[in-house]
Amino acid sequence: MDTSSPTVFVNGELLKLYMGRRVRTVVQVTRNEGGAVVGQSTDNQQLTVKGPNQSVPVMHFMEVIGVADGPQSIRAEICTDFGSNFDTASYNGLCKLANGQFKNLFL
Amino acid sequence: MYANHYDGGASHFHGGGFMPSQATQTPDQAGSSKTRSSTTSTTVPLTIKQITEAYHLNDERADFLIDGVEPSLVKLLGRVLNKAERVTDVSFLLDDGTGSIEVTRWVSDSFDTDEMTKIENGMYVVLIGKLKAFQGKRHIGAHAVRPVQDFNQITLHFMECIHAHLDNSRKATAVPATTSAMNDMRAYQTLNVGTGASGDIREVVLSVFQEPASLARENGLHVNEIIRRLGLQEQKIREAIEYHVEVGNIYSTIDDDHYKSACNG
């Protein structure tokens, strides 16, 4: 993992602000098609995740750390299975705070 | 020694441990409680970015100032990388997405070794430890390292970082109101000051000059002492001092860096 660049907490809405940058987000896997996973972001947008580590089952939550390469697409470097019990509302709130008022604590 | 604290993950990992109204504090002292580090043990949840930006007070004592607080312990959450096991210790790099820091966990008995064998590269862990600096480089001496099992803990940890940051910064606006009540107490407490309106800064700076301990000193206080106490930018503090000199609240004594309150306190 490249430790020289911090990863931004994003949801679907914030992803487009960080094009080309390392981001992290959590999506709920809706379908798995070949080399890409389609998931729903914590703010109910559809995101596409390309890359290795596609072993997360459908309906589980998956954390994606990678580079934002499209307004709704991420080129993943690391994917982690976050299980089936994850609070999307809190995570969504965290994304907004980490990019807004408290950005200086994170970036 | 630390083994007992982490059974069931109770006290250290809950929000109750981070707020100043813990254990030894009475209600009206709550405002300054967090900084009396000799009697209070403070555990502060932090992002690694906050650590890398923390103001380092004293090279020998390795004291750091974050949001006006000198934490005795820090709580971090992130991924483990480059785990290296040696005879007396295990070390790894912790990356939480805001930065990375070296962590060392000394292993002296089987409890420690068992705890660390469960930790693998790529895993999310929570750790509690002491922040240290050596030759300018910061690192953590971990007391306890636990794998994250419920990933909501990640969201929770960063929320706690925000909460603790807000709480410490907010003490600034509360403190000037209670300072006059605390004036007859021994004054060497670091005030928690946030970056509020300039009016707040002026009040707080004046209140430092008006403490009995400051009044008792013949040459008053040096500007650098005010900066150290309040943890604010030098520019802002000098502005506040200039204002007070103009208005007549304080005057300079032996040189341009020493000031004393003109009031009898």
From TrEMBL, chain A:
Pfam families assigned: Rep_fac-A_3 (PF08661)
Nucleus keyword on record: yes
CDD domains: RPA3
Subcellular location: Nucleus
Record GO terms (molecular function): DNA binding
InterPro entries per UniProt: NA-bd_OB-fold, Rfa2
Keywords, comma-separated and alphabetical: Nucleus
Gene Ontology BP terms: DNA recombination; DNA repair; DNA replication
SUPFAM superfamilies found in the cross-reference section: Nucleic acid-binding proteins (SSF50249)
GO CC, alphabetical: nuclear lumen
Keyword Transcription set for record: no
Chief place of localization: nucleus
Family (UniProt): Belongs to the replication factor A protein 3 family.
Protein name as it appears in the record: Replication protein A 14 kDa subunit
Species of origin: Rhynchospora pubera
Automatic annotation (TrEMBL), chain B:
Compositionally biased spans, kind Low complexity: 32-43
UniProt-listed CDD domains: RPA2_DBD_D (cd04478)
Keywords: DNA damage, DNA recombination, DNA repair, DNA replication, DNA-binding, Nucleus
SUPFAM superfamilies: Nucleic acid-binding proteins, Winged helix' DNA-binding domain
All residue ranges annotated as the Replication protein A C-terminal domain in the record: 172-257
Gene Ontology MF, one: single-stranded DNA binding
Annotated region (Disordered), positions in chain: 13-43
Transmembrane segments: none
Top-rank lineage group of the source organism: Eukaryota
Compartmental location: Nucleus
GO terms of biological process kind: DNA replication; double-strand break repair via homologous recombination; nucleotide-excision repair
Segments of skewed composition (Polar residues): 21-31
Domain OB: 74-140
GO cellular component, one term: chromosome, telomeric region
Function: Component of the replication protein A complex (RPA) required for DNA recombination, repair and replication. The activity of RPA is mediated by single-stranded DNA binding and protein interactions.
Name by which UniProt lists this protein: Replication protein A 32 kDa subunit A
Source organism of the structure: Rhynchospora pubera
